[in-house]
Amino acid sequence: MSQTLYVQLLDLACGALLLTAVLVLWRREVAVIIRIFALQGVALAALVAVLAVHERSAELGAVGVGILVLRAGVLPNLLRRALVGFPHTPRETRPVVNVSASLLAAAVLALIAYAVSQPLVALAPSPATHAIPVGMAVVLIGFFVLVTRRRALSQLVGFLLMDNGITALGFLTTSGVGLVVELGVSLDVLLAVLVLQILTSRMRAAFGDTDLDELRELHD
Amino acid sequence: MSSLGVISGVVQPLLVIAGSPLLVGMMRQVRARMEGRAGAGITQPWRDLRKLLRKQSVSPRGTTKVFRIAPLVLVATTLVVAAIIPFVTTASAVDPAADLFAVVALLALGTVALALAGLDTGTAFGGMGASREMTIIALVEPTLLVSIFALSVRVGSTNLAAIITSTLHDPLRVVSPVSLLAAVALAVVIIAETGRLPVDNPSTHLELTMVHEAMVLEYGGRDLALVELASAMRLTVFLGLLANLFIPWGIATSASTLAVLAGIALFVIKVGLLSVLLAAGEVFMAKLRLFRVPELLAGSFLLALLAVAASFFLA
Q: How far apart are CA B302 and CA B294, in angstroms?
């Protein structure tokens, strides 16, 4: 793979990563948000695949395939299973910060990510490290989704968005943190989602809704 | 001023004036056919304009000069923009004026003139339309500037001719995240600024949700013809800008007759294709609630800003 093609593909994958993060913030229907999250998984896997081909590393390629299966297949399916059983598809009707304001906040977060990651880029300038701000921005946007949404499921997507960002950062800075570490992190995330999915189903069974603001007061 | 610049300065305004009503007619025809109607034919807007131009213009009692000057300002600014943006050839008639900031300012000047005219009539509809138009333009203008600015970062110049020439020499740039994000942002604001669905419905009159039509409700005769012509020209200019910023191939780089003719033909085809796409998209779309419009525009502003950010950190 020639250098220009490598840079082009890497940039495209990073652009897709950032765009999907913004779309999660933009859309209200939880079902659509889950589909966008699956697309982000594909973009992340593509990023790893591009790095794998560039470094000619079979191990990295295997990790890429694993990421594709986990983040574009298993996790979105788990989230969708938590969605089954709602009388109508749930929507994020009134997030803590309204959608236009949160989009503008995302713009500020992207600039902060750029400012914060300058020293990291300066350590070892290369096409991959130049994309660090993108990973950082995805982490920050994920955290923003996590704190401003009311539905348990969209908060879960926010958490996963953060994790996607952290994974992307790991690959961009070090070209992979090793198969064992990656496997451990992925299993952790899978377990967290499984537990939270069961928790969400129980919540809905008990209260008929997954709006976390309803859980402020103690009930008998 | 080069001979190429003179050619574009003469050909482009004529092309835009003659072609823009046909463009609007074609969009209406596409919509009509897709909705199962026969349609009025693509020359209908020209027939409407001819009819309106023959009538005398009436201005409501109590209106001032602002009301009478607005259509002229609207047409004049659009005509200047049509003459200076490199549409057909890569050279511009007045090269220093073919600047991103000058072009956006001229286009915004026309919008503001029309909004002032809407306020000047003192009617409920005029005021409402003007206030809505100002809400939209307040978000549209920064997005327009920022999204084109994202393209100018790599070129190092805000001159539109320079941006288009450099894309011509480096086609791979078009598939970079910077230009994809900027293209989406620019497309959204162009839809909002020209008053198409889902922001404004161009085919309704006397409806509480209208924006552009509400401002021009009091115009009649020649003035109405000017306003209609100018809004068709603005649509053409915006679509041409979008087409040439992201797919500039076919634009004439030399002053030979063949190159200029090819430039004209390809410009017509590009803008025609874009307008057919836009019209076909509108068939499947409903108008957004007015309170959701700022959300859409804030989203497109974010995309434009990310495009600028990406042009710095992915460079």
A: 12
Pick from A4, A99, A114: CB nearest B313 = A114
Of B11, B16, B29, the C-alpha closest to B261 is: B11
Inter-chain touch B313–A107, beta carbons under 8 Å: no
Mean pLDDT confidence for B111-140: 88
**Overall number of domains in chain B:** 1
Domain that holds residue B30: 3-313
Dist. CA A3–CA B191, nearest whole Å = 38
- What pLDDT digit, counting tens, does each position of B269-291 carry? 999 999 999 989 888 887 777 77
- For chain B, the residue count is 315
Look up the ipTM and state it: 0.79
Mutation site, B174, B305, B314, interface A, largest A CB count within 10 A: B314
Q: Where are the domains of chain A?
A: 3-215
Q: Comparing C-alpha atoms, which of B261, B271, B264 is closest to residue B12? A: B264
Bridge partners of B252, per DSSP, are: B89
Q: Which residues of B fall within a CB distance of 8 Å from A8?
A: 172, 175-176
Strand ranges in B158-260 using DSSP code E only, listed in sequence order: none
Instruction: Answer yes or no: pTM beyond 0.95.
Output: no
* Nearest-CA distance A51 → chain B (Å): 16
